[in-house]
Design goal:
single chain; mainly alpha; two-stranded antiparallel ribbon; 4 helices; 4 strands; globular
Length: 145
Amino acid sequence: MTFLAPPPRGQITASALAGEVVFFAVGCASCRRSTLRTGANPVPALHKVTFHPFSHFLLHDVGSLGDGVTQNQATGALMRTAPLWGLRKLTTYLHDGRATTLDQAILTHDGQGKKARDRYAGLPGWKKGRVSEFAVARLGVGLRA
């Protein structure tokens, strides 16, 4: 798993770039960092490499999205921020599969993601569509109607 490449990105269109602006503007990037850099590593392929997982892999209070499982310091409302890349391989979203569309997944966010969710919910439909185009192009999301 360590040496698997990230999934390929789609075509970056003007609409996708506009969607990325909306993604950042509503606050999604506070938990979904677009760019990270690895630290020192004896394996050259992993040494100080810049990558784009759209995550920072930290624990967040997800409120009602929590799974109720306590593991070490992670209580049932704390979950690791999973990367967004490669979502097109999934048939459902969120850790428990309760969302069948990207829009549902965003609108289900709670806890620390509630403010970004509320800002997204207040967007006109065409701006939400731009976020979807960004997701398809940059994150490898395969959206379903």
